[in-house]
Amino acid sequence: MEEEEGFQGAADLFPPGYSTKCVEPQLSGKMLVLDYILAVTRSSSTDKVVLVSNYTQTLDLFEKLCRSRRWDHVHKEESQDRGEIQQSLAGGCGLNLIGANRLVMFDPDWNPANDEQAMARVWRDGQKKTCYIYRLLSTGTIEEKIFQRQAHKKALSSCVVDEEQDVERHFSVGELKELFTLNEDTTSDTHDKFRCRRCVNGRQVRPPPDGTDCTSDLSQWNHCADKRGLQDTVLVAAWDAAVTFTFHHRSHEEQRGVV
């Protein structure tokens, strides 16, 4: 295998016999979790899933995974660097985007508006089914840093537009400079930086404040370092694959409908 500039020695990191012709989810934590999400969704419901990535190469991997599992899918690229692939999880069902109610954001965008626009694919006016949106981030990597920068941008917007003063829970300029520092000793670098006072030893002991929902600041969501307390059966089933921490919440509408 010919090495490209900047990737010298990278080939030694791959296991013997590795081939780019097939997808091996067990070699990637996020891909393994995705594999579980799709498999459990397919076996337990008729839901459809939209997979979103910023990179066409990643979309190609999604397609290989779906093909290897013999799952019906449609590959759609909207631009050069952002696309989506939709998987029909019910045999014989039409593959229309409007029918999807689960969405997986495989990687974050530097601009939070782009991610919010992508998430609106399934969470939209006229949607009758409960929507589930999964954002997958590799713990301690630059992906968490990108996500933290999104939160920082939204916090600054709140200060300027909404004149909110409580920004203590957000991130300093110095923390934003740590983008390329790999933290291998954490279950969630983002949760660490929130300096959460509702969790003790990684476990939530006080629920989010009244009136919060999935549009609230992430620090006000439910924090979970294990699968206890999760109500999404798909996420519970996928937890043991490679999940170390989750932030989760529900909309006001769904909470009102729960007895």
UniProtKB/TrEMBL annotation:
The keyword Ribosomal protein does not apply. One of its GO terms (molecular function) is hydrolase activity. PROSITE patterns: HELICASE_CTER (PS51194). Keywords: ATP-binding, Helicase, Hydrolase, Nucleotide-binding. SUPFAM superfamilies: P-loop containing nucleoside triphosphate hydrolases. It comes from Aquarana catesbeiana. GO terms for cellular component: nucleus. Residues 1-168 form the Helicase C-terminal domain. It comes from the Eukaryota. One of its GO terms (biological process) is reciprocal meiotic recombination. InterPro entries: Helicase_C-like, P-loop_NTPase, SNF2/RAD54-like_C, SNF2_RAD54_helicase_repair. This is Helicase C-terminal domain-containing protein.
